[in-house]
Amino acid sequence: MSNQPIVKLVNVNKSYGNVYALEDINLDFYPGEIVSLVGDNGAGKSTLTKIISGTEGPDDKGQIMVDNQEVKNWNSAKARARGIETVYQNRALSEQQTIYDNVFLGREITNRFGFINRKKEIEETEALMRKIGYTSKVWTPFSSVNKLSGGERQGVAISRAILFESRLVILDEPTTAMALTEAAEVLEFVRNLKKAGKSVIFISHNPWDAHAVADRFVILERGKIVFDGPKGSMSADDFIALLHKFAKKDIKS
Amino acid sequence: MSEQKKGILIPERLKPVLGAFIFFVVMLAAFIASSPEVFLTIGIYSAVFLSLPLFAIMGMSLVFVTAAGEIDLAFPSIIPLSGLAFAWTLQQTNLNFILAAIFSVVVGISCGLLNGYLITKLGLSSLITTLGMNFALIGLTNVLNNGEVRTFEELNDTKIKSILVGSFGPIPAQMFWMIAIALVLGMIFHRHKFGLHVRVAGDNPEAGRAMGVNIERTKILCFALVGLCASIVGILGILLLSTYFSTMGEAYLLPTLAAVFVGGTPVTGGKGTIGGLVIGAATVVFIQTGVVAAGLDGQWTSLGFGLVIVLSLLGHRKFSGRLTR
Questions:
Q1: How far is A105 from chain B (nearest CA, A)?
Q2: Most buried pick, A146, A162, A180, B301, via CB within 10 A?
Q3: Chain A residues with CB inside 8 Å of B207's CB?
Q4: pLDDT (tens digit, 9 = 90+) per residue, A15-35?
């Protein structure tokens, strides 16, 4: 793609004590593409996303560039301000609250005394959910999240992520432990994110899900990037064979 | 679930209130059936209205704390300590009510802030911390008060007393104050972003933190609210009897907590209802007053409490699904 990258990582390293979680990561994320980030447990997927979303800082050497400018003291508030939103696996939603309360949590639309403007929040929630193709007929914005299926919950979390014009949405294992139909629903949300002009980093254990949505694959093994390339005409079987190749290499060494 | 099958759809958030209300009506019906001559006269209700506001105002603040996933057992001692501040200042200043009330509120809120600080910043268990503070604060009160009973008969015909705890026909003035406070706190709990943050703190604090909500500050403010309400209860209680004594908070612990849970606020946090609390408090106070009025020995009150609490929890579970777990 000819556009300039939203986020560019240059020689990023991260170590915990003397264990390297990430080694010399060079990676670009462009507007309007879905990147599937795959790799085994401990390969460094989570660490990498934490660094991009600002919840953890990288080691001193290496740079994080946003819109081709180096950023210093990167943190999650800054990341959000620059349009980078993260949907976390487990800590995304307050299940006993309503859908609209969750979508606007921490960024409530209020009058000047702090009372929530429910009408406006509900309207915007409905608009957001239409945008990502949220078609459930069962919910109303007043439904509490614990009444929703796993896929629908991800839908709430994802629509929250595109509130306030975010550009890059990081999805951390959004289909883990989901039934097939639920996962399919989530993948559809992800495709709609792209249609709405967002970039997505899709992190997954599941090679089929990762293949289904991706424009580009990044495979991590033991803290290093071992593959970074476009999906092109690669079939799901080819992709899985590729994953196996790296995994086998790993076992041999 | 069965929600879709039935004709009438009750909004989720109203279920606990409705549950508490149905329970209250059933209890009232049982009392009326057992001794109609007592419960069909206005006198018994006037008696209930006299003390109901005190339990309800105290309980409302506990709804905030409980919904935030914590518990506060220190309030029965904050009442007499902040009450002492009120009584002492009245005596020292020749009945300067405003000054006394301000000092009382400051003492109450300070106790709450201390609790909140210990629990959130030092990460102590709220159950044990406030249990300890309950002992510590009543101890402090006793040391400072030294067993004195302070009477304020000169307050009896003052304007301030009639405004706060006088009566409008059969209805004591404090009932109106209770309703006003319930409206304000209800709006804050259910419609203000602070209320939302309180509920999130008790449901999934990590979700709140991830979205930039200051969970610790939210919880500290909940404990401060308990301190504020305790001092209001202390002031009203002193005015009501024109007397201060350091055991004035003792009777509040169990009935107020019972009012919270009977009112439909689950002990597990993340949810709560101010409207339900008022009904729960009415239920609890009605048992206290009603058992004696029905001609039973006062010792039956506790048995009545126990039955009501357990039965109401069963009712809430049947009515609202996972509410009570």
A1: 7
A2: A162
A3: 91-94, 102, 105
A4: 888 888 898 999 999 999 999
